[in-house]
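for the writeup, i need someone to sanity check this before i put it in the appendix. the sequnce is what the collaborator sent (i think, or maybe the updated version? ugh). structure was predicted straight from it, no edits. if anything looks off just tell me and ill rerun, i have time this weekend
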Amino acid sequence: MNILNVIKVAILSLGRNKMRSFLTMLGIIIGVAAVIAMLAVGQGAKSAIQTQIQSLGTNMIIVFPSAVSQGGVSTGAGTSIKLTPEDAAAIANECPSVEYVSPVIHTSAQTIYKNMNWRTEIQAGNTNYFQIRNWTLQSGNFFNENDIKSDANVCLLGQTVVQNLFGTSVNPVGQLIRINNLPFKVIGVLNAKGQTAMGNDQDDIIIAPFTTVQTKMLGWTWVNVILASAQSSAAINDAEQQITEVLRSRHHLQTWEPNDFTVRTQTDIATAAESTSRVLTILLASIASVSLIVGGIGIMNIMLVSVTERTREIGIRMSIGARGKDILYQFLIEAIMLSLLGGLIGVLLGITASDLISSIAKWTTLISPESIILSFGFSGAVGVFFGFYPARKAAMLNPIDALRYE
């Protein structure tokens, strides 16, 4: 029997029971749609995390002090006071793979403008801080080297601080605010960055020269963190190694002594975040795939019923010359057509569901061609796997017994 004739007969057989065929496909439709939608959610989460990590800075490297032990008790990472502005200067001068370096001091403070007040985070760095963190201006200017050298009382505001101190009716640039009762002139407003992957508001921030915060607000000689930016993403590992060597030399550490600082790269952060996202995606896709398995079982059950109902038809076909493999192909093609047609409808439904999730739940979704191909291909595989047993059972029928079947 010609394969085209087999397909034609399969289509006619499925068309006789349209409602039953649709209900049989329903499991595959739901399964494929669920897989595509869940993969879209997972990929969207991964994309959102990558975007948020990129918003932290370009090829960023973070150096922070290690833990301090007092009386045998560790006070936790970041409690050492061994990082200094001079360390940052040495990294800038002696690490060829590093493009930008900034010492950073972070604290929190109460800010006041007229009768409004807001407690926020203070980030203090040098002029390179803005390039490292990818900060851009909405209005005004960044502070300059003269502001750093003169410990100028100037600052830039994030959007959240602007909204809570000035609202929408006042231009903050040029205004005076008080930070812990110290007057600061607002010289710029930063563009919004939004939340980090951890839910922290990046716009709830004031940025000032680190020398001003260091001498006038806190009286420190050290810094909390040193931020650096590698020349390129390919140079991050080299930059990390060079920074480690420079700081070990400056801190007079012997070869057997551990580092009194910790270096973290943007790659480390991205890898950890993507690992979590990958696990989430696999979990969601695995749960959704169960629907495909259930749909495959439904196809097998209906095909077994179809074989029983059409036993006499099978006997007639065999008596006029149809071979066992022709019967096998007919029922197998029916099962595959059910699964593929269900898969096609499921793909369209999955794309629609992803768009609805994005618009209603405000989640980022990303549909990749790979997820569509994977889901559609898996639906075809389900048809072959669960359709083979009923097809083989039909092909193995004895023609005489089939003709006698009532």
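The mean pLDDT is 82. The chain is about 55% helix and 20% strand.
thx in advance!!
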